[in-house]
Design a protein that fits this description.
Blueprint lengths: L10 E4 L10 E2 L6 H6 L6 E8 L5 E5 L3 H10 L4 H8 L8
Antiparallel strand pairs: 1-3, 2-3, 3-4
Bound molecules: zinc ion.
The site of zinc ion has 8 residues, from loops.
Length: about 100
């Protein structure tokens, strides 16, 4: 991964926490809070944070799971990065 601001690869991976050391999570906006509370929907997805040593930019990435990728690929037309990942067969090793 590279810094989205300056393009540097000097990124430090970590987590983003509040003062109670609770790690933040990503919740898709199409999943209502009520559904989450009642257990009809899966909870938040873990996030990874990357701090750039060069420009001090902080960027955050979401750890989507396989069912997320299938679900959102089904409903969204253009998600090039996700499509590329799904279309590439991880079991097939070339070279
Ligand atoms: Zn940077």
């Amino acid at each position: 991964m590279k810094c989205t601001a300056c393009g540097s690869a000097a990124l430090i991976e970590g987590t983003v926490r509040d003062s109670n050391t609770s790690v933040i999570q990503f919740y898709p906006s199409d999943v209502s809070t009520l559904k989450t509370i009642l257990g009809f929907a899966v909870g938040g997805r873990p996030v990874r944070a990357y701090g750039c040593l060069h420009c001090h930019n902080l960027q955050i990435a979401v750890d989507f799971n396989e069912s997320d990728l299938e679900r959102y690929q089904q409903f969204e037309g253009e998600q090039p990065d996700v499509l590329e990942r799904i279309n590439s067969n991880p079991k097939k090793v070339e070279g």
